[in-house]
Amino acid sequence: MGRMVLNRVLVAIPLILASTLLIFLAVSVAGDPLDRYRQPNVPQSTLDAKARELGLDEPLLERYWHWITGALQGDFGLNARGVPVGEELLHRSLVSFRLVAIAILIAIVVAVLVGFFSAVHRGRPLDRVLTMVTVLLLTAPEFWIAVVSKQAAIKVNEAAGSTVIATIGDSTPGVAGMAWSTRMSDYAAHLVLPTIVLVLAVFPVWALYQRSAMLEVIDSDYITMARAKGLPRTRVMFRHGLRNALMPLITMIALRLPWVIGGLVVVESVFGWRGLGTLLVEGVQKQDTNTVLAFLLLSAVLITLLNLAADIVHRILDPRMTHD
């Protein structure tokens, strides 16, 4: 196990470095950070000074070297407001993490259960209903799901005459100075609706893939042999079938993680969360190069680490994997 992890890390390091170079080149040519300073009354000397301040007067590869060496030390430069990007990134990451972590865990559980019971009841009414609902959610745009859910929650609040379901922001203004229990309760209240929306947007693909993997396992020879030996059907399906059907799903989850980040951008924008998703949107709108670069670098590192975690879990579930 230790050798496998070391090999994966050694492979991941050059991949991350290569991705940072591509990210830097793509963001650098996508727009001019000086555009927001170009006004009729702004002299060229001021623009030249700003270019030197931002390092835009240096060759592209030299700028990349300064950026990546600074990023490795936790220095991502300043954003458009003159605030260190690292501080903003840390704060926004903590906000988004509680949403993404909970949503992914719930989505995995829902996907496994839906895929499992749909496959076990293949061709029966339960299978048809679960498959139909999953496909409908799969075809529904994430933005539409978020907007419809928010509007429904607003109507519920209006009917109740009070805020039953929080629909805006990641917390109530001023809650940071309150008691710990009050803060946790407030965070939980604001988590409910965005979490539901993100789960609905993420789990359908995983559920359909889990159903397909489970069907393949059910039709395998070793399941037929276990049933022929007289083992209880429930034990065969859960202990032998589900465990083997989970392994392909783990790979699919790792491959779909970039879509989770995309869903995060949509959900945070609709519900007004001050997390990583809205940080990216603000960075793109303001042509804030350092902010966009920091977000993309963090995403690349997280996806790489989560893929490594998927490899480890895959190895634990399948003891036969003794070679890399």
Describe the fold and architecture.
The protein has a single domain, classed as MetI-like (MetI-like fold, Orthogonal Bundle). Helix 4 (85-120) crosses helix 7 (180-218), helix 4 packs antiparallel against helix 9 (233-255) and helix 6 (142-160) packs parallel to helix 10. It has 324 residues and is an all-alpha fold. Helix content is 76%, strand content 0%. The chain is globular and about 85 Å long.
What is this structure's SSE topology?
Blueprint: H1 2-30, H2 44-54, H3 60-72, H4 85-120, H5 125-139, H6 142-160, H7 180-218, H8 221-228, H9 233-255, H10 257-271, H11 276-285, H12 289-317
Helix pairs in contact: 1-12, 4-5, 4-7, 4-9, 5-7, 6-7, 6-10, 7-9, 7-10, 9-12, 10-11, 11-12
Task: Summarize the structure in short.
The protein has helices at residues 2-30, 44-54, 60-72, 85-120, 125-139, 142-160, 180-218, 221-228, 233-255, 257-271, 276-285, 289-317. By secondary structure, the chain is mostly helical.
Summary tags:
12 helices; 324 residues; mainly alpha; globular; MetI-like fold
CATH architecture: Orthogonal Bundle
Multimerization state = single chain
**Under CATH, the topology is which?**
MetI-like fold
Q: Total number of helical segments? A: 12
Sheet with most strands: none
Structural class by SSE content: mainly alpha
Give the low-confidence spans: none
N→C terminal distance: 9 Å
CATH class: Mainly Alpha
Taking all Cα atoms into account, the compactness measure Rg is 24 Å
